[in-house]
Known about the structure:
Layout: E1 3-9, H1 18-27, E2 36-42, E3 53-58, H2 64-72, E4 80-81, E5 89-94, H3 98-108, E6 113-118, E7 121-127, H4 130-137, E8 146-152, E9 167-170, E10 173-181, H5 184-193, H6 203-216, H7 221-231, E11 234-242, E12 245-250, E13 259-262, E14 266-270, E15 286-288
Amino acid sequence: MCGIVGLHLREPALYPRLGSLITRMLGQVVERGPDSAGVAVYGDPAMNPAGTTAVSLLTGGLSAAEIADAVAARLPGDVTLGRYDAGQTVVLSAPVDADLLIDAARAAVPACTVVGHGEQVAVLKGVGNPLGLAEEFGLERARGWQAVSHTRMATESAVTPQGSHPFSVGPGQCLVHNGSFSNHATIRRELRAEGVEFDSENDSEVGARFVAHHLARGAGLEKALRMLCERFDGFYTLLVSTQDSFAVVRDAIACKPAVVAETTQWVAMASEYRALAGLPGVEDARIFEPEPEEV
């Protein structure tokens, strides 16, 4: 199954409520995927201080302090430990270029896996009950303008932190997925032949790498998703977020659920309407189900 929720805030007065709103939405889709979960938060100054780049790492069993000290030893600027670090994920930020920060993290702590990076995004994910993870992440306290989250019921690969969503494999980009890709192995081989590396055996990561690969080549988000629809076989609902927006697309027969709601204050998407029902002003929202293969 799997559950998806996403929230983009148009009204700055709501930014302090982002964490509480997305946590409430996540709580309504837990039974769709109780084995692991993750969230990407855009615009939280505690995780992404002004003038810094952030990197999100799966800890590999190391403590957050050990990771921060090891990375700081390789960088010229101060390294900040995000206050929403959890037992499975840690967010570090520094006033350096993203590639320099990523290289320092990989060299300093080879046991870690980079699961997100960007100037305004922090990715947290792990194995366990989604609401338990949300509490561990301190998600209720998060603030910002956008968040996407996912609850996973594993079908294509092992239940691991690396296999949980979101998959954030490009700067500021995240993908969450409900469904399965039947030809992911073929596309994985094609991408590897072009130099693309993978962190898991999850079919959803193939979709994320495909989209990021084409965005890096200059395609816009809508074009990249249309290319995915043409190339991938299977049943799916995808939500792909960038620094300031997100997009939703479903497969040709739209067998996986998706509901979008829009007001002047926010735009939201969820696998089920009940995840949207608690949003402020939802009674005045335009609510619809995306058409098949319509981005």
